[in-house]
Design brief:
Layout (H helix, E strand, L loop, with lengths): L1 H22 L11 H72 L3 H80 L2 E4 L4 E6 L14 H7 L5 H4 L2 E9 L5 E8 L7 H10 L4 H26 L4 E4 L4 E6 L5 E6 L11 E6 L18 H12 L3
Antiparallel strand pairs: 1-2, 2-3, 3-4, 5-6, 6-7, 7-8
Helix pairs in contact: 2-3, 3-7
Length: 385
């Protein structure tokens, strides 16, 4: 029932937004954050407070139930003690009466003794009467505690049922929404999606085939053997973690996006998506995919070179340092164009560890100007480290 009421509430205000838009020019269309959203947020805030209060009441009831149970145990012990006391008093009273009867029948000196026995008998009867009243009060309190404990258990059971039912409904709703998000992205963007939880999805972009082909003159078999342990294929699988949050109207909105590859940033795409508020999620995934396919050839080439040469890729500066020469004493810096390998050529910007007679402008590979060509040429020129 609660879910139907909530869905009806969202549907009504969504229709209200739509009718507002139809009745006004586009420049005056209501924004996402409106009075309806604020009311929904307030309602959700009240719901959270009610849940917290319910949890607090549940904990208090658990503590109170424990106290009631302990009190019931103590009263039961008190009742048992009173019953033993009553039994003892009844036995004493019976003994006094038997003794009094015996003395009365004997006759000699019976007057004084009989008077004392009557006094003792009266005191015992008074104690017996008070003990019976105390026993009745104890049994009454014990019954009240048992009834209170039963009422607490029933209330706790209802609280458990309500909270569990609400959590199950919320989990089911979040799961349905996340499944819809995953289905849309997989259908329209040709990617693999995995739900981590009700708010997080990992989008997996598989690598394109034939990424890192060695340059002319490089033994392909040798390169494959050298790179076998590097597991290039695994490194070239992009995984983007998307975290969602529910907005004021109950819809999932992208809250953050993070790449598993340090050299591949998606922050600007996510910020643009959030700031503009335009474009669907599959369109955003398609943009990430296009950038990834553009970035993969460079990453594949870097991974291939790491298997064979001593290099240091500084991705933020778009440079690649190549360590060559005996003992690794020579460091060559290559500049990589931002659009490489689709546009531009790699250039040698500086060399450290060589004599002044070596001119940077005079160094250039003959076979091509790709990264692999440059790195192979520099190692052949100055020697392996």
């Amino acid at each position: 029932m609660k879910v139907q009421v909530k869905d009806k509430f969202v549907e009504t205000f969504t229709r209200h937004h739509f009718l507002q838009s139809l009745a006004a020019p586009q420049s005056e269309w209501p924004l996402l954050v409106s009075q309806a959203d604020k009311e929904m947020q307030n309602a959700k805030s009240h719901l959270r407070e009610a849940k917290q209060l319910s949890e607090h009441q549940k904990n208090n009831m658990l503590q109170l139930n424990s106290v009631v149970v302990q009190g019931s145990i103590l009263y039961q012990a008190h009742v048992d003690s009173l019953k033993e006391k009553l039994h003892t008093l009844e036995e004493l009273l019976e003994e006094v009466r038997v003794t009094q009867k015996t003395l009365s029948e004997s006759g000699a000196g019976a007057g004084v003794v009989s008077k004392d026995m009557e006094n003792q008998s009266a005191e015992l009867e008074k104690l017996l009467h008070e003990s019976r009243k105390e026993l009745l009060r104890a049994e009454h309190h014990k019954t009240q505690l048992e009834m209170e404990a039963a009422s607490l258990r029933a209330t706790l059971q209802q609280l458990h049922f309500t909270l569990d039912e609400d959590e199950e409904l919320m989990d089911a709703t979040c799961l349905r929404r996340m499944q819809k998000v995953i289905s849309d992205m997989e259908e329209l963007s040709d990617v693999l999606c995995h739900a981590v939880n009700s708010n997080t999805v990992v989008v997996e972009f598989p690598p394109r085939p034939c990424l890192a082909q060695p340059s002319t003159g490089v033994n392909t078999t040798e390169a494959n053997v050298s790179c076998h342990n590097a597991d290039i294929g695994r490194d070239l699988i992009l995984k983007v973690t998307m975290t969602f949050k529910e907005d004021g109207l109950g819809y999932l909105r992208l809250h953050s996006m993070e790449s598993n590859i340090d050299s591949f940033s998606v922050d600007d795409l996510w910020k643009e998506h959030c700031e503009n508020g335009t474009g669907s999620l599959p369109q955003l995934v398609a943009r990430v995919k296009a950038r990834w396919f553009s970035h993969m050839p460079l990453l594949a080439e870097i991974n291939y070179l790491r298997c064979r040469y001593a290099i240091d890729w500084i991705q933020k500066e778009n440079i690649l340092r190549v360590i060559v020469g005996k003992g690794g004493g020579i460091v060559c810096t290559l500049e990589i164009p931002p659009a490489y390998p689709h546009q531009g050529q790699v250039t040698l910007s500086s060399i450290m560890g060589v004599s002044d007679t070596v001119q940077v402008d005079n160094l250039k590979p003959l076979t091509g100007l790709r990264l692999q060509d440059w790195v192979q040429y520099l190692e052949e020129t100055f020697g392996k480290p």
